[in-house]
Write a structure and sequence with these properties.
Low-confidence stretches: none
CATH topology: Ferritin
Number of domains: 1
Helix content: 55-70%
GO biological process, one term: tRNA modification
Radius of gyration: 18 Å
Number of helices: 11
Structural class: mainly alpha
Largest sheet: 2 strands, parallel
CATH class: Mainly Alpha
Mean pLDDT: 92
CATH architecture: Up-down Bundle
GO molecular function: tRNA 2-(methylsulfanyl)-N(6)-isopentenyladenosine(37) hydroxylase activity
Distance between the termini: 20 Å
Shape: globular
Strand content: under 5%
Order of helices and strands: HHHHHHHHHHHEE
InterPro entries: Ferritin-like, Ferritin-like_SF, tRNA-Hydrxlase_MiaE
Protein name: tRNA-(Ms[2]io[6]A)-hydroxylase
Pfam family, one: MiaE
């Protein structure tokens, strides 16, 4: 175990560890660190990077950008979705594809649209870059791209979202913050147990993931007319329950392995 790889990032991790109500269980780390489980971890990580970009794009299309610029978002994601879900194209095709423009146009009727666009468009660009990095690692290790069932983690958090606006958007942003924070915590928890190349890659993601969780929380508070602390606390409790409970499949955001 090489804890030195994470040591420079401990100050960055302090607010994240305070935000999350529990750390990743040792049982999950032990299972995820097994060499035979690395393909599953990397494959699910790849899917998670794409889903993070898709979720941010959906928020932009629904709450921030004009219809025509919403299509630009769909076009930017299409090559990634073709590769992952349909087996069409290669990493080279994705890298050559049309990248997300910085100049997305806000819908006039949407409050705080400019702020949402600035933060979420940057997040999308970074998540898609991370996707490419994970894919390169998989290719180098001859790990094939394949379909993978998602963990219950995000789905069960999304079931708690209120059905009216702007509370629905606020809840989705809080969930986004929790997913990014948990991802950051897990990168740091797992890195010391992995080989040097992947460990270095995982710690390289910590700074952007930490910023993403802050972006989501700050947007949620800006959009709310009242303090969101109580709602955030409720979601933190739900999130911790999922992490502490058992899961029958190993995924990047799964709970305690039921078979460990």
């Amino acid at each position: 175990m090489n804890t030195a790889v994470v040591s420079p990032y401990l100050p960055l991790l302090e607010p994240i560890n305070e935000f999350l109500l529990c750390t990743t269980p040792d049982e999950w780390i032990q299972e995820a660190a097994k060499a035979e489980n690395l393909p599953i971890i990397l494959l699910d990580h790849l899917h998670c990077e794409l889903k993070a970009a898709q979720s941010a794009a959906l928020l932009l299309r629904r709450y921030a950008v004009s219809e025509s610029h919403g299509q630009l978002l769909l076009d930017a994601l299409q090559p990634y979705e073709d590769l992952v879900y349909r087996g069409i194209g290669t990493l080279n095709d994705v890298q050559k594809s049309k990248q997300l423009s910085h100049a997305l146009k806000a819908a006039e009727s949407q409050p705080f649209a400019d702020d949402i666009i600035e933060r979420m468009s940057r997040l999308i660009r970074e998540e898609l870059h991370h996707f490419q990095q994970v894919y390169e690692i998989m290719e180098a290790r001859n790990i094939p791209l394949q379909k993978l069932t998602a963990s219950r983690y995000a789905k069960q958090l999304l079931q708690k979202v209120r059905t009216y606006e702007p509370e629905a958007l606020i809840d989705k942003l809080i969930i986004g913050a929790l997913i990014e924070a948990r991802s950051c915590e897990r990168f740091a928890a797992l890195a010391p147990y992995l080989d040097e190349d992947i460990a270095r890659f995982y710690v390289s993601l910590l700074r952007s993931e930490a910023r993403h969780y802050q972006d989501y929380l700050e947007l949620a508070q800006k959009l709310s007319e009242t303090n969101i602390s109580d709602r955030v606390k409720q979601f933190r409790e739900w999130e911790a329950e999922l992490i502490r409970s058992e899961d029958t499949e190993l995924r990047f955001h799964s709970g305690v392995p039921a078979y460990a």
